[in-house]
Amino acid sequence: MSIFEYNGSAIVAMAGKECVAIASDLRFGVQLQTLATDYKKIYKIHDQLFIGLAGLGTDAQTLHQRFTLKHNLYKLREERDIKPSAFGQLVSATLYEKRFGPYFCAPVIAGLEPDGMPYLCGMDSIGAMETAKDFMVAGTATDSLLGICESLWRPDMEAEELFETVSQALLSGQDRDCLAGWGAVVYVITKDKVVARTLKGRMD
User: Fold this and answer.
1) Nearest partner of 12 among 27, 25, 23, judged by Cα
2) Are the CB atoms for 95 and 104 separated by under 8 Å?
3) Nearest Cα residue to 14 out of 204, 125, 169
4) How far apart are CA 16 and CA 11, in angstroms?
5) Residue 196 near residue 187 (C-beta atoms within 8 A)
6) pLDDT at position 163
7) Do residues 184 and 171 touch, judged by C-beta distance below 8 A?
8) Per-residue pLDDT tens for 102-124?
């Protein structure tokens, strides 16, 4: 078993019309043994920017602390919140500087740019970046998530439809992976609010 699959994870981010959603499963396991069912893999950087960290749980927590520190320093210096596109570059550089002994994490970044445009990007453990206009997935359930997202996603969805789509995609995808599941948490980001919902999934 790969070290990236040790704790299990399923993360999906999806873009809509001036809104963006990011969701993850809630399982925390050690290989095939489930230890916790309330482990959120999505972290808030600021109101318009969230990051999902798939992979090894300990490295995810370390990276979240480093990104929070770097964003706070950026905010002190620039006197504004960091843009999602700039944060993507920051995450990529942070991972790449540890490329010879990498963090075992695959980040997914979802946010709204100041002009309201959705921003999605994902990368591997050494910061090789990939942006997307539709959706981005990470974790142990990527194969099934990609298929269901390609079937369900369509352009210019409003916030409620986006929530429904990302929820159905994640629940369907994680049900086909024994290392992810046990419910989900979904964040829908619009320019004036963030709505967080917890979903019940199959408990097996």
Assistant:
1) 23
2) no
3) 169
4) 17
5) yes
6) 96
7) yes
8) 999 999 999 999 999 999 999 99
76 has pLDDT over 90: yes
CA 179 – CA 6 distance, rounded (Å): 9
Q: What's the predicted TM-score (pTM) here?
A: 0.94
The pLDDT of residue 27:
94
What does the radius of gyration of the chain's CA atoms come to, in whole angstroms? 16
How would DSSP label each residue in the chain? --GGGSS--EEEEEE-SSEEEEEEE--EEETTEEEES----EEEEETTEEEEEEE-HHHHHHHHHHHHHHHHHHHHHHSSPPPHHHHHHHHHHHHHTTTTS--SEEEEEEEE-TTS-EEEEEE-TT--EEEESSEEEEETTHHHHHHHHHHH--SS--HHHHHHHHHHHHHHHHTT-TTS-S-EEEEEEESS-EEEEEE-----
Structure tokens at 65: 């602390």
Using left for φ > 0, alpha for ψ between -120 and 50, and beta otherwise, residue 32 falls in alpha
Phi, psi angles (nearest 5°) of residue 155:
-70, 155
Side-chain-side CA neighbours of residue 12 (13 Å) = 35
Give the Å distances, CA to CA, from 5 to 29, 104, 150, 189, 201: 10, 10, 23, 28, 20
Categorize the per-residue pLDDT at 1 as very low, low, confident or very high, splitting at 50, 70 and 90.
confident
